[in-house]
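sorry for the late reply, my laptop died twice this morning and i had to redo everyting from scratch. anyway the thing you sent over, i finally got around to it. pasting the sequence first so we're on the same page, its 1000 residues, then the predicted structure underneath. double check i copied it right bc i was rushing
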Amino acid sequence: MRLHELRLTAFGPFGTTQRIDFDDLSRAGLFLLHGPTGAGKTSVLDAVCYALYGSVPGARHSPQGANLRSDHAEPGTVTEVSLALTVAGRRLEVTRRPSWARPKKRGSGTTTEKAYSALRAHQDGAWKDLSRSHQEIGEEIGQLLGMSKEQFCQVVLLPQGDFARFLRADAETRGRLLGRLFDTGRFAAVEQRLAERRRAGEQAVRTADTELLALANQMVTAAGDAVESPLPELSPGDPGLGTALLGWAAVARSTAFERLAHTECALTTAESALRAARCALDGAGERHRLQTRFARARERAAALAERTAEHRADALRIESARRADTVAPARELRDEAETRRQRAAGAEAAARTAAGDPDTPVPLDADGLHTAARRAAEELGALESARRAERRAAELAGERDRWQREEAADRELLHDTTSWLDDWDTTRTALHDAIDTAQQGLARAEALAGRLESAEGRHAAALQRDLLAAAAVAAEQELRAAHTRANRARHDWLDLREQRLNGIAAELAATLTSGEPCGVCGATEHPHPARKAPGHVDRGAEEAAQTAYRQADAAHTAAGERCARIEGERAAATAAAGDAPVEGLADAVAALRTELATARRTAWGLHAAREALDRAEAEHARRVTAQQEAARRAASRAARREAWEREAAAVEAELTEARGDALSVAARAEALQRRVDALHTAAEAARTAAEAARQLKEADARLSDAAYRAGFDTPDAAAAALLDGPAYRALQQRIDAWQQTDAEVRAVLTDAEALTAAGLPPVDLPAVEHAADRAEQRLRDAASRHAAAVRDREDLTRLSARITAAVRALGPRRAEHDRVARLASLTAGTSAANERRMRLESYVLAARLEQVAAAATVRLARMSQGRYTLVHSDDRSGRGRSGLGLHVVDAWTGRARDTSTLSGGETFFASLALALGLADVVTDEAGGVRLDTLFIDEGFGSLDDQSLDEVLDVLDSLRERDRSVGIVSHVPDLRRRVHAQLEVVKGRGGSRVRQRSGGR
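ok and here's the structure:
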C-alpha cells in the first residue's frame, strides 16, 4: 500500500481545503510531520484512517463522525476527506463525508446532510466509479489491505506509547492486544467448543448411567424376594458402573432359573394328584347318576298309569278333528258363495233405487231395465241442435261484452290523449333546456380530466418516491449482508489455501515414484516422504471454497447493481413529484375527482335528455295516431250492433222451447244422461244377483256330500268337531309328551347298568367332590407359582438384555467422552499432560509473539549496537499459566530481564523495534500486502544524538524495500536531520499544512 495524495476540507482543525502530496514526501524515504501542540498533526493521521475505514482511531471515534467537522469552517463548506492510494496493484481514490448540519436552502435553520462515501478506480487512463455504499467500500478496502482498522493503526500508524505499555503489560493484557491483531478468536472458539462437548458428553454419560440404574431397579422390582444380592452402590458417572450391573444381572438370572425348575417339579406332582382325584369323582358320579335315574323312572311310571284314561280320550278327540278337516274346504267354498250373493243383492237394490222415477214404475227384470235405458238415450240425442244454439248464445254474449270493453277503453284513451297533447309545448321546451345543461357539464368534465391526470401523475410519483426510500434502505442492508458473506467466503478460501500450502509437501510426496527424480530436489530416492496430516486440504476443497467465494462475490455485485437501480428510480420519482408531501397531493387529487364526478354526472344526462326528447316526440306521434284509430273503431261498432241484436233474438227463442222446465239445455241433457247410466247399472246388478243365487245353491249341495263321506250326519256336526290351530297343537303335544315319557321310562327300567346300580348301596358324593376340589386347588397354587417364576425369568432376561445392550451402546460414547475431556483439559491448560498449563489460544499467540520478537530483534540489535535482544518466554506466571512472557537479553551482562526494567531510551528502542517487527508479521499474516507508507508517532525525545542517529539509520534502511516512513515528532533536531517535511501551522482561522520536499 502506497499513499499518493490526501485532501482535507473542513476536517478537524483544518477549516479550508488542504492538499498533501505523499508522492513528493516519499521520494526522500523519510519525512517529518511536525508542528506545535494542538496544530493537527494527529488529525492528518486520523484523516488517512477515516478515508480508509470510515472512522478515526481510539477515543476520538464517534458515531456518524459527529466530532470530525472543523469549527473553523464556513457554514456552507462540506466536510470531506479524499485519499488517493495504490494497493494490490490498483490505483484507487476514496472520498468520505461525515454527516453534518448544513444551512437550509429555504428559510432559516439547518438540516442534517447524510454521510457520503465514494470509491473510484483508475482504469484505462480514466477514473471509474466502483461503489457509493459505506459498508461495501469499507469491506472492499479491508479485503485489499487484508487487515482491520485496529491492525492498520498498529501496523501503519505506529503509536510508540501503546508499544511501551505493551512491553510493561502482564500476560493477560498482551493476550488481548495480540488477539485483536492476529484474530485468534477461532482458537478460543475451539477451546469453548471442546468444553461444551465435554459437558454435553458428561451429561450424556450420566443420563445413560441413570437409565442403566433405572433398568436395574426394574429388575429388582420384577425379581421381588427371589434375588437376595443388593444393587452395586454406585452413582451415575462412576467408572465401572456398567460392569458391576452386568454381574449383578447375571446372578439375578441364575436365581430366577433355579426357582423356575423347583416350581416345574411341584406343578407335575399336583397334576398327577388331580388326575387320580378326578377318576374317583367320575366313578362315584356315574354310580350316583344311575341310581337317581332309576328311582325317578319308577316315579314317572306310576304317574303315567294314573293318566291312561285321559290319554285315550285325547286320542279319540284328535281323530275326529282330523276327519273334520277334510270337510273344511267345502265349507269355505259355501261361505264364499253366500258372501257373493249378499253383496250382489245389496248392489241390485242400490242400483234400482238410483234408477227410480216417481211417475214411471221401474221394470222388475234386467230386460225391462235395458229397454228404459234405450228410450232415455233417444230423447237425449234429440237435444243436440239445442246445444249448438246455446253455445252460439254464449258467443254472442261474449261479443257484446267485448264491444262494451272496447268502448270504455276508447273513451279513456281519448281523454288521456287529449290531456297529454294539451301539455306538449311545455314538455318539449323543458327537454331542450336539459340537453343544453348536459352539454355544458361535458365541456367542464373534459377540462377537469386533464387537470386530474396531471395531479394523479404527481401523486403516484410521490408514492413511488416514498416506497423507493424504504426499498433503498432494505437494498443497502442486503448489500451489506452480501458483502459480509463474500468477505467471509474469501476468508474461508484463504484459510483453506493456507492449510493446503502448509501441507503441500505431503501432496507432492504422494506423486513420488521410487527411482524417479523428485520434482523439487531431483533425488531419485525418497526415504522419508511427507505424510498427509489428518484433515489435509486437497486441491478440490480449495477450488470448492474459491467457487463459493466467487458465487458470493457475484451475489454481492448483483446486490450493488440493484441498490444503484433503486437509487436511480428514486431520483426520477423525486424529480417528477418534487418535495410536495403525499398527503397534500392526495387532497388535491381528491378535490379534482369530486369536481370531475359532479361535472360527469351533469354530462351523463346529455344522452338521457336526448333520448327523452326522442321518446316524447315518438309518444306525441303515437298518441295522435291512437286518437284517430279510436274514432274509426267507434264508427265500425255502430254498424255491427244491429245484425247482432237480430241473431241474438232468434237464438233465444229456440233455447226457450228446448229447455222446458230446466234451467238450461245443458242441465236437461245432463239429467237425461244420468238416468241412462243409472238404468244400465241397475240392469247389470240384477243379472249379477241372479248368478250369485245359483252358485250358492250348488255350494250347499257339495258341503252336505263332503260331511256324509267324512262320517258326520250333518255339516254342522263336522263344524263342531273342528279344532283351531292352537287347540289342535296343544292336544297333539299332550299326546306326544305322554308317549315320549312312556318310552323313556320303559328304556330306563329295562337298562342293565341302571338295574345293577340300583342294587348297590348309595354313594357319599359330597366327600368325593371335596377331595377333588382340594387336589384342584393344590394344582392352581402350583400353576400360579410356576407362572410367576416364568414371568420373573422372562422379565429378568428381557431387562438383562436391555442392560447389556445399553452398556454396549454406552461404551463408544464413554470412550468419545474420555477423548473429548482429555482434549478439552489439554486446550484449557488444566491437564497434567499440559506441563506449562498453556491454553490453546495462548499457545498460538505465543508463537506469533515469538515471530514478532524475532523480527524486532533484528532492528533492536542494530539500534542498540548489538547489546539487546528480545526473546519470547513461556515461563509460568500469575495463576500458574505460561505463554506470553517477553524478556530482553543484555549482551553485556549475558542475563535476561523483564522488559519493564528498561530505561526511557531503551524502552523507545524496544518499542520501535517491536512496532516494526509487528508490522512485518501482521503484513505477512494479512496475505503479504506490501506496506510502502508507515508513520511513527512520538518517542524520539528520549534519545541522545548517537542513539537518534542509529534509530534514523534503521528507519532509513526501510527504504531498501522502497518504503517511505513518516516521523511524527516535536524534536527540533529532527528538522535538521530530515529534509522532507510536512509542517502543520495553526492559527485563529484554523490550521493549514506547509510541505517541503527533500530537495528544498
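The longest helix spans residues 424-502.
thats about all i looked at so far, will dig more tmrw
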